User: Which sequence fits this backbone?
């Protein structure tokens, strides 16, 4: 919810456009507050839990799709008529990608909250892929975009020192995110199917160790995705240091110019 507030403030700031709908944003806030606090039980549908609690958790998780879709629509439609800004502004690309990941995470929450899907996905790496899609896709991508908006202004610069590094960071982050999350979700589905597989004699078809071995290629892909994300963050640190150095050099030059002896 905190990052939704960040999005509603900094996305219009970066785009230099008014928010598409103030009323839709208010609806988003209140529906999230009223429904979100009851959505938690869908994570524990099958342990010992009162039936009314499970039903309430499933219902609220499904209903949360409504505010999520309204928030994604509101953020993206802020750029209506100005889509050219998205093509040339990597900071906006970070923010819009984060919004898309927020919508996908909300859809995944609704999917995982159904009893049939939860029976397959519970305790598997599908849950890991879902959580990282929200954490790395929504929270981190929006946090990166917001940081790129703030950092030059904190040092009195109009923009970051290197726009090429900024664009490279975006594509590294998107590539790493896709590799990490898709490999975890796909591996988790296969993991869940193997756990539930029954042999002709009624025993489990796969041992636990066999299911762990099956996940090895998915873990390799997720490792590559994680390294791409890490490489992007290293570029960000380097770009920020370049920006701070350029700001320091500019300030030092201003101080020695005639008329600035004081």
Assistant:
């Amino acid at each position: 919810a905190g990052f939704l507030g960040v999005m509603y403030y900094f996305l219009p700031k970066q785009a230099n456009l008014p928010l598409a709908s103030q009323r839709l944003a208010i609806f988003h806030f209140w529906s999230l507050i009223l429904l979100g606090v009851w959505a938690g039980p869908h994570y524990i549908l099958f342990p010992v839990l009162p039936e009314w609690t499970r039903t309430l958790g499933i219902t609220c998780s499904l209903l949360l799709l409504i505010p999520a879709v309204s928030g994604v629509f509101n953020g993206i439609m802020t750029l209506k008529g100005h889509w050219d800004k998205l093509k040339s502004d990597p900071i906006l690309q970070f923010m819009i990608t984060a919004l898309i990941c927020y919508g996908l995470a909300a859809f995944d929450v609704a999917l995982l909250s159904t009893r049939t899907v939860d029976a397959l996905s519970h305790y598997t790496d599908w849950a890991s892929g879902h959580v990282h899609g929200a954490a790395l896709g929504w929270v981190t991508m929006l946090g990166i975009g917001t940081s790129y908006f703030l950092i030059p202004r904190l040092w009195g610069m109009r923009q970051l020192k290197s726009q090429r590094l900024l664009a490279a960071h975006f594509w590294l982050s998107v590539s790493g995110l896709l590799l990490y999350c898709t490999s975890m979700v796909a591996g988790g589905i296969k993991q869940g199917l193997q756990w539930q597989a029954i042999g002709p004699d009624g025993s489990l078809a796969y041992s636990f160790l066999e299911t762990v071995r099956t996940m090895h290629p998915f873990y390799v892909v997720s490792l590559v995705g994680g390294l791409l994300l890490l490489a992007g963050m290293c570029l960000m640190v380097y770009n920020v240091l370049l920006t701070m150095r350029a700001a320091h050099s500019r300030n030092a030059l201003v101080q020695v110019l005639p008329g600035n002896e004081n």
Observations:
- Residues 41 and 82 are 41 Å apart (CA to CA).
- The first helix runs from residue 2 to 15.
- The chain has a mean pLDDT of 90.
